[in-house]
């Protein structure tokens, strides 16, 4: 009879799950599936239905949860590298790899929960994976927009825009982590991952935030959405030229990212997340 890895059990669990249902009960508890911010929409839509089967295979190996996170990081970097392939081929490969990265991202936590090996190192590596991937994709988009070979100094405009977009995306991601650091340094308790914690207390900001949900451009800067956009514009590029399509996308993303950054900052300052 299989040993069930209960959430309150002590010590690492070396047993293997006896069934997918047993694995799901431990690796996908309601508090995980119900998280408001920590789950990407692709996970809620379909990846969490696939991930237990991949986790099942991983648990038959000796790979650690941090090792799985390492695979996630490498998959993310490969996603960005795929965009170095010109035209729709690179965009299609990046689209597939972007989904694979999110699938592996689901699995590392499931392996850690089953084996009871969750650690700060795993959280840190997860952050490294997402920060670096979401910085590398816009950098490579700038290279795509510049075309091959580069003409200097004219094409430096596009690579510079790619770097600028990467910087803004990283800053936007860092704002959420800055909130946690600020609360920890102030001796406040950790924020619960639920709706009310991030709702702005000022009426005007709250209305603007709700309005943004109808045009959620602020959600375009995750690796999944970025690879989707690059693929869509690569299809458009079949008709207007790939380099031109990449340039149009890059020019549109840069100002929208700045608007998202400012809006995110204002929403945080207007919420109780940074209030004692």
Description:
The chain is an all-alpha fold. It has a single domain (20-274), classed as Four Helix Bundle (Hemerythrin (Met), subunit A) (Up-down Bundle). The chain is 70% helix and 0% strand. It has eleven helices and no strands. The chain has helices spanning 20-27, 30-33, 41-58, 65-82, 87-115, 120-146, 156-185, 195-198, 203-212, 223-240, 242-269. The longest helix is centred in the middle third of the chain and has 30 residues, at 156-185. The chain is globular and about 60 Å long. The chain crosses the membrane at residues 68-95, 156-175, 220-242, 248-270. Pfam families: CDP-OH_P_transf. It comes from Herbiconiux sp. A18JL235. This is CDP-alcohol phosphatidyltransferase family protein.
What secondary-structure arrangement, pairings included, does this model have?
Blueprint: H1 20-27, H2 30-33, H3 41-58, H4 65-82, H5 87-115, H6 120-146, H7 156-185, H8 195-198, H9 203-212, H10 223-240, H11 242-269
Helix pairs in contact: 1-5, 3-5, 4-5, 4-6, 5-10, 6-7, 6-10, 6-11, 7-11, 10-11
